[in-house]
Design brief:
- The chain is mainly beta.
- The protein has one domain: SH3 type barrels (Roll).
- Helix content is about 10%, strand content about 35%.
- It has a five-stranded antiparallel β-sheet with strand order 4-3-2-1-5, with no helix packed on it. Strands 6-7 form a two-stranded antiparallel sheet.
- A hairpin with a 2-residue loop joins strand 6 (about 90-95) and strand 7.
- It is globular and about 40 Å long.
Length: about 110
């Protein structure tokens, strides 16, 4: 298993589709349903043995949660914050172009 290329709080964009987002969780390998994976067109379907990222995502029309393979992400160079309404649940602000992860309360 390889380590993730991107970290929590990094802002990335999809390599092929017009959306971007902030990473709020990482799975070391694919951890979604087989049905979800098979719904991706075969010619762009990613390999399962790589990190997959949970993004607070946005496109021109809306915000949503996205699940994206590492091979389909590139750094976002826009310098713009992500406008997702849940940003403050996961992050405290931006420093040097990266969101700062909000500390989780200890139980």
């Amino acid at each position: 298993m390889r380590s993730a290329k991107y970290g929590l709080g990094e802002i990335v964009r999809h390599r092929y589709y017009p959306f971007r987002g902030a990473i709020f969780d990482v799975d070391p390998v694919f951890a979604n349903t087989e049905e979800w994976w098979l719904s991706i067109p075969e010619e762009v379907r990613p390999k399962k043995d790589q990190p997959f990222y949970h993004l607070l995502a946005e496109n021109e029309e809306t915000t949503y949660i996205a699940y994206v393979s590492e091979q389909n992400l590139v750094p976002d160079e826009s310098g713009e914050p992500v406008r997702h309404p849940q940003i403050d649940e996961f992050f405290t602000g931006i420093e040097d172009g990266c969101y700062v992860v909000r500390p989780r309360p200890s139980n």
